[in-house]
Amino acid sequence: MEIIPLTRVKARFSEIVARLIHRKEAVVITRKRQPVAALVPYEEWAKREASDRDGLAAAAGALADFDDEIDAMVNAIYESRANAKDRNVPI
């Protein structure tokens, strides 16, 4: 991975993009010696995007029945409190 200051990126953007295309390697852009951005080959970006979407879809699928479980848990708590003899709750 190449690290390039922003000033050089501004001056040689076309050259940097051409190298990115041919080398298929990410480039980190710095400003005041701190990393601020990265240029990655499109194929790598597309893979990450697809992976992120798949990961979110899996998480959503895993949580599909979660609302039912929470409702059951809340109902059990209310029922337990209503049946508790040791709770003195003024009405």
Features:
2 domains, three-stranded mixed β-sheet, 91 residues, YefM-like fold, alpha+beta
Description:
The chain is α+β, with helices and mostly antiparallel strands. It has 2 domains: 40 residues, YefM-like domain (YefM-like fold, 3-Layer(aba) Sandwich), CATH 3.40.1620; 42 residues. Strands 1-2-3 form a 3-stranded mixed β-sheet. A hairpin with a 2-residue loop joins strand 2 and strand 3. The longest helix is centred in the middle third of the chain and has 21 residues. It is elongated. It starts with a strand and ends in an 8-residue tail after the last helix. The mean pLDDT is 83.
* Derived structural class: alpha+beta
Strand content: 15-25%
Q: What is the number of helical segments per DSSP (H or I, 4+ residues)?
A: 4
**Largest sheet, strands/sense/barrel:** 3 strands, mixed
**What's the total count of β strands?**
3
Enumerate the strands of the largest sheet in spatial order, edge to edge or round the barrel: 1-2-3
Helix-strand sequence: EHHEEHH
Helix content: 55-70%
Q: Residue-averaged pLDDT, rounded?
A: 83
- Rg is 27 Å
Number of discrete domains: 2
Shape: elongated
Outline of the structure:
With 91 residues, the chain is an alpha+beta fold.
Set down the secondary structure blueprint.
Blueprint: E1 2-5, H1 6-11, H2 13-23, E2 27-31, E3 34-39, H3 42-62, H4 66-83
